Amino acid sequence: MPRDDHCERPSLQDPELGLQGPSSRGSEESRSQAAPAYPDPLRLRDALQIAVSALMPLLGVIILARLALLGQSPASLPMAYLAGLGFVALGLYRLKHVLRYLRWRRHSPCPPPK
Question: Which pLDDT tens digit goes with each residue over 64-87?
Answer without folding.
Answer: 999 989 888 888 889 999 999 999
